[in-house]
Amino acid sequence: MAAPEGPFRAAILALAEGRPAAAVPLLEEAAARGDGGGYAWLNLGLALSQLGRLAEAVPPLERAAEALPDLAEPLFRLGQIAGLRGENERAVACFRAALERHRDHVPSLAALAATEETAGRLLEAAALIAHARALDPAEPELGAWAARIALARGDAATALEEAEAVLAQRPEHVGAAQTFARALLRLHSAEMALDRVAAHAAADPFAAGWPVAAATVHALSGNLAAALAELQAAAALAPEAAEVQGELGKALAAAGRTEEAEAALRLAVAARPNDVGLRNRLATVLWKAHRLAEALAMLDAAIADFGPEPALLMNRALLLNLRGEQAAALEAADRAIEASRGSREALVNRLSVLAYHPEGHAQALLGIGRRIAASLGPAPAPLHDARPADPDRPLLVGLLTGNLCRHPVGWLTVSGIEALPEDGFRIAAYSLRPREDAITARFRARAAMWREVGAADDAAIARLIAADGVDVLLDLGGYGEGGRPFVLHRRPAPVQIKWVGSQASSTGLDCVDWMLTDRWETPEGFERFYSERLLRLPDGYVCYAPPAYAPPVAPLPALATGRVTFGCFNNLAKITPAVMAAWARILVALPESRLVLRTSALSDAETRRLLLRRLIGAGLPEGRVTLGEGLPHHAFLASYGEVDIALDPFPYTGGLTVCEALWMGVPTVSLAGDSFAARHALSHLSNVGLADWVVETVDAYVALALSRARDLGGLAALRAGLRERVRASPLCDAPRFGRNLAAALRFAWRDWCARAGAEGKRAR
Amino acid sequence: MNAVTSAPPQDAALAERLAGRARLALRERRPAEALPLLDRLRRLPGQAGAAAALRAEALLDLAAFQEADEAAAEALTANPGSAALLQLRARAHAACGRRLDAIDAAAGAVMAAPGDPLAKALLGAMLLDDQRTEEAIYFLGLAFKAMPDNPRIQLRLAAALRQAGRHEAAAELLDHCATIAPNLPGLAEARSRTALAAGDPERAIALAEEGLQRLGPDAALYSALAHALEAAGRREEAGPYFRMAARLAPHDPYLAHLAATMAGETTARATEGYIQSLFDGYAPRFETSLIALGYRVPGLIRRAVERLLPEVAAGRRRLGPVLDLGCGTGLVGVALHDLLGDTLVGVDLSRRMLEEAAAKGIYTALRRAELSAALREDQGAYALITAGDVFCYLGELTEVLTLCRACLAPGGLLLFSVERGEPGSGVRLGAQGRYHHAPDLVRAHLAAAGLEAAETREEDLRLDRGQPVPGLLVAARIAGC
Questions:
Q1: Å from B4 to nearest chain A CA?
Q2: Most exposed: A231, A400, A488, B200, by fewest CB within 10 Å?
Q3: Burial letters for A21-38: b for 16+ Cβ neighbours within 10 Å, e otherwise?
Q4: What is the CATH architecture of B283-478?
Q5: A524 and A574 share a domain?
Q6: Does A204 touch chain B (CB under 8 A)?
Q7: Closest residue of chain A to B16, computed from CA coordinates
Q8: Which residues does residue A598 pair with via DSSP β-bridges, in sequence order?
């Protein structure tokens, strides 16, 4: 080959200096000119792959494979990309073709081993790795691989030895350190494993691998805080090691430390753009920081590069939903179901999205719930022990949730739980996320038992609940983020009830005996929408605990400004095109009126811009819409001072948001549908005697908003007395709610006792 | 192990990364996260002292007091005379219960940094812990003068004033503090307790309730409220607050005990658990500790036996069967051992206490049981039943006294101690979680149980923070016998 000249030469130089982005345009130019033979194409493909632009890398690599018929490399790279995109058959074909060109091509042998490993053919994988190592005995990557496969085959001793050898050569090798830790745990107790790792760390304190191994042992034993501490040390020791930074980033993200997580993950992704897990994790971190547009762009780029990965698609669905783009969200959710061949996670994902979608009717939601139930298979034998079916004895009530804190679940359940009579109901909390705030403290003060179980798997949590002897288990997480509804499938308690916590519809699960509800959420005849039996409380199904720091109710702003301000402080997922169209009709009919939207997602400028565009597109007058960012809770409540009337979204209506608006003196115009989520507002408004603020059609919704807005005198009078009215109503009457809840739980318990008694008789 | 030791990187960059991350972790109150970083930092040349100082801080925050103390000592070796390290050491000493060492270290910090009011405040706090109230007020007063707007110093000075009985001054200072830092942790509790100490339980209740309303649930505030309710005679209402306090501070045995006691009969087993776990942990150092506290009860029991059973004292007769209720490590057995002529049965809840008692080789039988249960099962007729420092854990005494009566031989003697309350004050729960019984109430309990007092003596039972604890030593026999 002649010495390359011009752009090709410059490109090779750029690649050698680690500047692939600079090389790309040069290589494109060189390839177009036919410089460098097939090597311009090959290097272009490599540079693009290195930048994570996998989709673009394929055509140049295909050109290179044609132009360089004796070279294994282009085919190997094509196979690698296919593998990353989950196209396993294509990947295997590429690797085999590469090996036909060059039977000792080590990377292809290793890659083929990886696909064999994924397919569970461990013997074949081991043989391929052995072949590769015979060719390149010094390569530690192959050693790490051999260690992992040895462990998968159950040979922990070999795995340990191999992993240790890799770490001696590459002290910051994350994969080897993790295999080392897993192998130790296979051979020893966690405590002994930690001792062994500590001995290595003491002998070799500046190697990053040992703290990574310690972190792995801690994480596998459920001690996430200790794992994070070790990873901090590893990251300080190996600031250049992308994989170490990636592990730290993931741990920080799991701990909710978004800013630090982003910094670590960005470092890791820059160095390893082909790691789909890292890019997905970074997207979720951005999402938690309310940077929805960036998060979505990151997911879209990853989907373009890696193909329809279910995890990417599900996050895309949730993100689109959060931006109020329900139709696109549902489409992504459906693609995830297809790509995962109907996995349970994808079905749960679809249910979460559908509840917000205009088509999210009770019947459709129950349908997905039923599919989720079917995916669980038949019910296993109950875990709870046989216990005396004594209808009147004190009961142990379990709460299963990650949200015993300042969260809708906390605000809507804490005063009710507190008010349950102590002599009849002991409380056991199964907390899925460690949280500590004033609401948590109230739960702690009421709970006789408190267990942090977030790190345990469903089976272990269920065993614990059963061993504690819980009589009635309340699921307060549902299908929402961090919820663990499938714990109930193992039947840890004789009576299992769904209450607040992503309570948007029926769960569809046979293991949920009851839905705690009321006559507004589920009137007579709604039984057909629920797999659960309906346990109706005589008033509302929740009890709101208003915060002591809520500012006083401000006077009706319209009296000072002379024009009505509507407000909606719900999250954007609820704001569908139909909602926007209804709001447009209201604002057009009342030319002086304004609309204020406020929620934390609006702290992101790009999200604000997009929403404004959609609002204008729906016919809302631009100058009369204000988009407010998220605020600390007391300031958020205070900002109801600028709102005369709240406009509720539909079909997913406001829950806590309606309660807070009422507490701040602001009544809500609402439209009730048939799903549970579509009737939250109806329940709360009816509970304070404002049922006449709820209608059933969009036309009636618009008409009601207009007529209320035209009656400033009525509004001012209502507002002046609203907090007292709410305080005195069943919505905030904790003692009354406590009695009702006690009676309902007792009813469900007696029902079980009666059934257990009847079964006992049959058995005899 | 064939690990290859990588050469210690000499670069300052690594040290800075490790120390920087550790400092950040400490600042954000994540002490556990600092430790693995510091394990590496101390292995870098010249960094051991700095690492030890940060480690001491982290361990102190993690409540690993002994280790924190050691790390502080190591840091001081590397950097003797450092005022900051001396303060750290003082806090570590204090947390380990070594009050005098804590005072020494804090005084060293004051001398090393005479211009630092925070060092004086720390010394004041340490002196306060040791009941050296006037000295505490002096140093906290100096700190207060230098930093009149520091609410933490105000809070401590107020505590010292309260301890000195200067309730009005304490309350005034706390009111001032409340205007500067109304949400300062501990302030609401201090205000409530100060009002209670000043004899105004109603105000104490109002202050605690207001704090709870504003700040939300808090173990110390619930406990203050419960004490205030108790003092106001609203005992029924106090129980649930002790219980909530105990749930919020699950590792505080004192609160757990109070909660259990206030709950009445239904949770007698919780009380058992408390006594058992408290004394199990206490057993190995029980005697030293009691002797250091001037514990007099076994000696008092011995002298009562000598007075009331002169034949036995003179060696002309031996003691018949003896039952020692709440025998602990067996100190009563030791006090009586040369007088015994028959069985000596010990009863206690704590397994480890019983092990200590068994090691003395004096008791003929030792039973692990709750008092009432043991007495119910016992078929014996004892010449002597002793209950030293036991009935202070029971509020109502009639039941246990009745059971004792059933186990006494005709003419047998029951000797017990109680902590003495004011006449007419009934039964009160004291700050240490023990009951104080008024003498007239004890007499009423005895009568109700069919016993009569052969002798009732006012005695100091032991020292608590240098103050004698007033008690009663009662000798009783079956009435009319």
A1: 6
A2: B200
A3: ebbbebbbbbbeeebbbb
A4: 3-Layer(aba) Sandwich (3.40)
A5: no
A6: yes
A7: A236
A8: A628
DSSP conformation class of B391: G
User: Are residues A629 and A521 both part of a single domain?
Assistant: no
Across A161-165, A300-304, A486-490, B250-254, least confident range: B250-254
Whether pLDDT at B416 is above 70: yes
HEC secondary structure over A486-543: HHHHHCCCCEEEECCCCCCCCCCCCCCCEEEEECCCCCCCHHHHCCCEEEEECCCCCC
Residues in contact with A639: Cβ distance below 8 Å, sequence separation at least 6, in sequence order? A569, A596, A598, A628, A631
Reported as a single tens digit per residue, the pLDDT across B298-312 is: 888 988 998 999 898
Contacts of A184 in chain B (CB under 8 A): none
CB contact, 8 Å: A270 with chain B? Answer: no
CB < 8 Å to B23, chain A: none
In sequence order, the β-bridge partners of residue B476 are B414, B453
Task: Report how many domains make up chain A.
Answer: 3
Of residues A203, A211, A445, nearest to B247 (C-beta): A445
Nearest CA in chain B to A211: B36
**Do residue A104 and residue A132 come from a single domain?**
yes
Q: Rounded to whole angstroms, how far apart are CA atoms A262 and A270?
A: 12
Residue B291 banded pLDDT, cuts 50, 70, 90: low
Instruction: Please count the helices (runs of H) and the strands (runs of E) in chain B.
Output: 24, 9
Give the closest residue to B212 by CA, choosing from B225, B203, B201, B200.
B225
CA distances from A535 to A361, A417, A510, A545 (A): 21, 17, 15, 22
**Tokens linked to A276:** 């789909």
Q: From residue A47, give the alpha-carbon distance in Å to each of A53, A61, B425.
A: 9, 11, 88
- Per DSSP, helices labelled H in A590-711 are 605-617, 633-638, 656-663, 680-687, 698-709
Task: For residue range A432-468, list pLDDT tens digits in order.
Answer: 988 888 899 999 999 989 998 988 889 999 999 999 9
Examine the domain organization and report whether A718 and A610 are in the same domain.
yes
Binning pLDDT at 50, 70 and 90, where does residue B265 land?
very low
State the Cα–Cα distance between residues A265 and B25, nearest whole angstrom.
19
Same domain (yes/no): A623, A491: no
CA pair distance A568, A642, nearest whole angstrom: 12
For chain B, say whether A162 makes contact (Cβ under 8 Å). no
On whether both A667 and A531 belong to a single domain, the answer is no
A722 and A595 co-located in one domain: yes
Question: Mean pLDDT of all residues in chain A?
Answer: 93
Chain A partners of B36 at a C-beta cutoff of 8 Å?
211, 214, 229-230, 232-233
How do residues A728-748 score in pLDDT, each as one tens digit? Answer: 999 999 999 999 999 999 999
Question: Domain residues for A462?
Answer: 395-537
Q: pLDDT tens digits, residue range A295-341?
A: 999 999 999 988 889 999 999 999 999 888 899 999 999 999 998 88
The pTM score is 0.73
| Among the listed residues B477, B467, B469, B479, the one whose alpha carbon sits nearest the alpha carbon of residue B163 | B467
Q: Tell me: the pLDDT tens digits for B393-406?
A: 888 899 999 999 99
Q: Indicate if A458 and A601 belong to the same structural domain.
A: no
